[in-house]
Amino acid sequence: MSFADRFRVMEPKNFIKDSDRKKIHDAALDVLETTGIKVHSSVARESLKRAGAIVDEKTNIVKYPADLVGSLIKKIPTKIVLAGRTEEYDLPLDRRHQYHTTDGCGIHVWDNKTETRRESTLEDIRKTAVLGDWLPYLSIYEPMVVANDMPSDKHVLIGLKTAMENTSKHIETESTTTPEEARAQVEMAAAVVGSKDELKERHYLSAMVCTVSPLILDGGATDAAMVWAENHVPVHITGMASMGLTGPATVAGSLVVNHAETMALACAMQAHEPGAPLLYGSVQSSMDPRTGGYNSGAPETIRISIGDVEMAKYLNLPCSAGGIGGSSRIPGLRVSIENAILTSPLVTAGSEVMNGIGLADGSTLLSYEQMMLDHEIVGLAVNSQKEIEVNDDTLALDVIKKVGIGKNYLTEMHTLKKVRNFYLPMLWDMSPFESWVEGGKKDLMDVAGEKAQKVISEHKPVKLDGDISGKLKKIVDDF
Predict the structure, then answer these.
(1) What digits encode the pLDDT tens for the residues 268-316?
(2) Which CATH number is 4-16+74-384's, of 3.30.70.240, 3.30.40.10, 3.20.20.480, 3.40.50.720?
(3) Residues near 360 by Cβ (< 8 Å), separated by ≥ 6?
(4) pTM for the full model?
(5) Using alpha carbons only, what angle is made at residue 125 by residues 195 and 2, rounded to the nearest 5 degrees?
């Protein structure tokens, strides 16, 4: 089984009727044409104006005629491959696979023994990249924290360099705020794959770019998106509207806002660089109605994330919607429950890329223990949605007749072969109660932490060629 085959799942199920998806789409087109989007990037505004959008340079508001939106959306590739450093880790986006990334932008790290927080460092990026390289159901590594011990103007590039040196899997970058930073990251990825031309063909690097709800495209991030587009680095367009706060207090209404924002940035990218790859994404949430706070574990969050997947399918675009990453202030039971409930329905709906492994407290707090627990949740969710094969071998009719009535299948060669495909949890203690007691009655968080540290200390990722590491260092030093 190839690495990508590990993530092959059933055909996605539809949760919203075609007629209702069309209503959401038409409402978003209405917003784009009549209200418009405030676009703070002059590069994006100029490209959109050349394509036929109506641009008010005094207000930076861009209005998108519906026929222009339709023609630009058609230029987006409907299937792409997110490449690993080596082909072994290539990830086809074909609506039949489901991948998970780590989460990004954490600023603190949880110490489970003392139950305290500390500031995150570059060493945490190295350790989580090593751990992510080893974890069998982690598909994509995204630098998980801010390297607070590095210069603030270079921490994103230093973190990316560290990730590239410690995992062979596809890398997603986040927190890019300027076009200069994006260009430097393009140079780094090109150094790894061989050239900028090769990078356009092998999408080793992808980038998350967030819209600003409601109905704004940020200047620096959008300028960066134009650089990604020029170099065919896939962009995960990620709206983060909060229902009732930066989006309407209904699922359908917030879907309209996100759909309008996503199409606005997608059209800007296509106007600037036709055929630039991108993923329709979002990590929308619901506000806490008592405080207005972030509430990513709410049922409304699940429903709106499913809706975003549905709208990606409606446009026939690769999908990077939803994700785990509960709002619990500390790692452990609550955030694990939230993450488990968030994950399974989105796998069923057909989200192709989901982010969130390893962070709690609104994606700000790294926990090595939670990273392991989230990985277990992902393994369970993906394997529960595996395609059910029906053929002569799986029907096992000859075996059924041979065993007959009242016997068992334990000694059959068919069983010995097939049982090797059964999913085995990495952390759960499946031993009898007495054995668990004799083993010290270990808490699951302790088991997860011990396993994480063992992997970090023993796993040796395939290193980059020394010349390439030298090139990456020079790009960072010159920035």
Answers:
(1) 999 999 999 999 989 998 998 999 888 888 889 999 999 999 999 999 9
(2) 3.20.20.480
(3) 110, 325, 326, 328, 329, 330, 331, 335, 367, 370
(4) 0.95
(5) 60
